[in-house]
Amino acid sequence: MADRRFVRTALIGLCAFLTAGCWDQVQIEERGFVIGVAIDFPRSTAAEEKADREAPDKPEGRRRFLVTHQFVVPGGLVSGAQERGIQNSANQAFLNLASEGDSLLEISSELATRSSRIPFYQHLKVVIISEAVARSNYAFADALDFFLRDPELRRSSKVMIAKGDARPVLEISPRNEKLPAMYINSVAENIRKTARMVPEVRLGEVHENLVNELSFALPRITSNENEVKVAGAAVFHGQSNRLVGFLGEEETEGLNFLTDRVKGGMLKTAVGRDLVTFNVQTASRDIRADIRHKERMRFVYTITCEGVIDESFKRLNYLNENATKTLQDNVAKEIERLARDTIRKVHKQMKTDVLGLGSHLKQKHPHLWKQIKYDWDHGRNYFASSDIDVKANVFIRNVGEVNMTETRDRLEVR
After folding, report:
1. How far is CA 312 from CA 327, 328, 335, 398, 407, in A?
2. In this structure, are strands 298-312 and 31-40 parallel, antiparallel, or unpaired?
3. Is 264 found in the same domain as 214?
4. Which domain range does residue 180 map to?
5. Are the C-beta atoms of 217 and 230 separated by less than 8 Å?
6. Is position 339 within any domain?
């Protein structure tokens, strides 16, 4: 009996040993690391578009996507040829594969028939969506649905909107980076040097805005053969979940001041006919709301900004209180100009609340918000009928190491 128990125990232990462990593991060298995705509509002829519309068995809302995946080629990252400056397709550190289909899951599955490594998305850095997809009804949300549902994907991937097609953005050849997607990812993080780009917006944030039907802005990206430019903003309407227009670089700067998302940057202002450059160190904003009449609410932004003088072509004694006050007022007027240009664009033209006023009402005046939330920037559009003004206060904390009055004679001698 004891022998039987020993044999039984040994068999159970052996089975547990054989069935335990990482039975479904995939070796790292077998993974196809996807670091960038670009989503477009495929180019089709007028006849094909007409046939699609007239197809009796075509489900309503069905559309085709052209998706470009950027894979990492590990051998290209350590290629001796690249170190010597030789560029050719054999030693590239990335591979772009494009495929077309009705769904992104179908496209991802189809890539497995063409690549030796199946797509692996846990290291996905950027998702770039074309202007056409972003403007089409529901296509933007449909394009992101796969990324939001797949548990393999992280919600920290950055989302950007291409001005034009998205695919060319992943096909650039940056001179200082081997992987275009990593180069794009790094450019998008330079928000402490400029306020003319929207701070990075991640997939999880986009999902939250879509679920809550909140209007929002995403970074705009353009490209040429060797580089990209992440500047400006793409404005999305919260109810329709589609792109309604773009903000220029200065309008984006104003938007960042109004939404309290300025991390740094510089402002140029004129003193007389000369230029002075103000380096922003901190910025904050406060909102005061007069809600006595919901059909004509009034909002006043107060923007407070601190910084230093980094460059001056004006010969002034900045240690003089009057000179400093004049410069502070000039910088404040520049901030007010930027903010009012942005307000004019989103408030009067787009009529879309990317300024965060709806969120302010929801937090500070919840009873009123319950009454008007379905008519805020759609329906009756109380947002468009409101009045919005802005006031800026600027404080110069440092004028640099040079007092121009004291060194004026030496500069003129030069």
Report:
1. 11, 14, 18, 13, 13
2. unpaired
3. no
4. 29-42+61-247
5. no
6. yes
Of 190, 213, 247, the one marking the end of a domain is: 247
Look at the chain and report how many structural domains it folds into: 2
Inter-CA distances, 22 with 18, 25, 154, Å: 11, 5, 22
Phi/psi of residue 300, nearest 5 degrees: -125, 120
Q: Examine the fold and report which residue of 247, 280, 304 is the final residue of a domain before the chain moves on.
A: 247
238 with 339, same domain? no
State which residues of the chain have pLDDT below 50: 23, 45-50, 53, 56, 60, 81-88, 404-414
How far apart CA 26 and CA 119 sit, in angstroms, is 12
CA distances from 74 to 79, 121, 219, 226 (A): 9, 16, 29, 22
Report the amino acid identity of residue 68.
Answer: T
CA 92 – CA 94 distance, rounded (Å): 5
Domain membership flag for residue 242: yes
pTM comes to 0.84
Per-residue model confidence (pLDDT) at position 44 = 65
Rounded CA-CA distance 51/72 in Å is 38
Q: Work out the widest C-alpha separation in the chain, in whole angstroms.
A: 109
Show the DSSP H helices in 218-320 as ranges: 249-258
Same domain, 339 and 229: no
> Which residue in 33, 326, 342, 64 sits closest to 217, CA to CA?
342
Cα torsion 223, 252, 189, 187 to 10°: value is 20
- Which two three-digit tokens encode residue 75? 């051998």
Residues 215, 276 share a domain: no
Cα–Cα distance measured from residue 333 to residue 321, given in angstroms and rounded to the nearest whole number: 18
Q: Are residues 232 and 373 in the same domain?
A: no
What pLDDT score does 398 carry?
A: 84
224 and 242 in contact (C-beta within 8 Å)?
no
Separation of alpha carbons 127 and 70, rounded Å: 11
Domain membership of residue 6 (yes or no) is no
pLDDT of residue 88: 47
In this structure, are 77 and 167 located in the same domain? Answer: yes
- The Cα 124–Cα 153 span in angstroms is 8
